[in-house]
Write a structure and sequence with these properties.
This protein is of the alpha+beta class and 363 residues long. It is built from five helices and 17 strands. It is 29% helix and 29% strand. The strands form three sheets. Strands 1, 3, 4, 6, 11, 12, 13 and 16 form an eight-stranded antiparallel sheet that branches. Strands 2-5-15-7-8-9-10 form a seven-stranded antiparallel sheet, with no helix packed on it.
């Protein structure tokens, strides 16, 4: 009789535990679904709160058939250097050595929030890492000046977004029989951004590493489909995205808050070749004015900017220049992590045995 009672009690305990666990699982599932719905609604509400409207600004856009570009003073765009226009594209540089070309808008832009969509094509006969050098998209105070930074002047004032197709720094390290650590190596072609204040110099030998705001790898050469780049500037936030996979989907490249750009600068695109070369073709530029609602507090804080800058720039540089973890440090971290897991497993076994012995004493 006593044995039967014990058996019944154990069965009841098992059924109770079963109901408890599965009821909790049902509750957790319901909680998860509610949380997902809450996040979705909150995100939707947030997006509506930052809803923008787009208006194409034709005076800052460049599209086929490029009427009057390079030949008429009434055109909004002006060619520089070796840039040539045809019915299908505007070729900034041909696949020849030591060429540079650019196209610049004649009108300063006073839009506070905008988005620039760039349709481009980079192609040539050179094999991987035997091509160069890339092109740049500009929003700067200066215009129509040649120089070493992708065909534009150094120490520029404003924003530069670079599509760099040749790894100068990596090649220098290879010649010195040195290598990057895996955490610091950048894969090319590379898209990166820089804000210049008139005194910052672009480090060509290091591919702009000391002054970059962010970057991403973008395999843009010799594609059989269209390639796009978008530069978006909204609420002092700089976002760069790319569409190079032929899927008509934007892929995040870099996102930097606190970027302060003055009004009244000029848009342009430039390119350069050196010992290595590529065709750098510009198919179209489309600038959209973005209308964004701002609260009174945001309007008060959004003061006029006179010198380009980036908030917390020093902190960004410290984080970027932090030394990566060495091999020995990584080995010790893994070793102590494994030892910690072993100790936790032993403590778990001991605790389980003690609980088992205590349960035996109840029967």
């Amino acid at each position: 009789m006593a044995a039967a009672v014990k058996k019944k009690t154990a069965s009841q305990r098992f059924n109770g535990l079963y109901r408890f666990v599965f009821n909790r699982q049902a509750d957790l599932k319901m909680l998860f679904l509610i949380s997902v719905c809450f996040v979705f609604v909150a995100r939707s509400g947030g997006e509506e709160g930052h809803q923008t409207e787009e208006f194409l600004k034709r005076e800052f856009s460049l599209t086929k058939p490029y009427q009057g570009v390079g030949s008429s003073s009434s055109s909004h765009w002006e060619l520089l250097g070796n840039a040539m226009v045809s019915t299908q594209q505007l070729r900034l540089t041909p696949d020849m050595q030591s060429k540079q070309g650019a196209v610049w808008n004649r009108t300063p832009c006073f839009l506070r929030d905008w988005e620039l969509q760039v349709h481009f094509k980079v192609h040539g006969q050179g094999k991987k890492n035997l091509n160069g050098d890339g092109f740049a998209v500009w929003y700067t105070r200066e215009r129509m000046q040649t120089g070493p930074v992708f065909g534009n002047k150094d120490n520029f004032t404003g924003l530069g977004v670079f599509v760099d197709t040749y790894p100068n720094e990596e090649k220098q390290k290879e010649s010195q029989k040195r290598r990057f650590s895996p955490s610091s190596q950048r894969l090319f072609p590379l898209v990166l951004a820089m804000v210049g204040n008139g005194s910052l110099s672009y480090d060509h030998e290091r591919d702009g590493r000391p002054t970059e705001l962010g970057s991403c790898t973008a395999l843009v050469r010799n594609l059989n489909h269209d390639s796009f780049l978008v530069v978006r500037y909204v609420r002092r936030r700089l976002t760069v995205m790319i569409d190079i996979d032929g899927k008509h989907e934007w892929r995040d490249c870099l996102d930097v808050p606190g970027v302060r750009l003055p009004l009244g600068y000029y848009f342009g695109v430039s390119s350069v070749t050196g010992d290595l070369s590529d065709n750098h073709d510009l198919i179209s530029l489309k600038l959209y004015q973005l209308t964004v609602e701002r609260s009174e507090e945001e309007e008060l804080l959004d003061k006029e900017v006179f010198i380009p800058s980036v908030d917390n720039w020093e902190l960004l540089r410290v984080l970027d220049q932090a030394e990566p973890m060495g091999t020995v440090s990584f080995f010790l971290l893994v070793l102590f992590s494994i030892l910690g897991c072993i100790i936790l497993a032993i403590l778990g076994v001991i605790t389980y045995q003690k609980w088992s012995e205590r349960d035996k004493r109840f029967y």
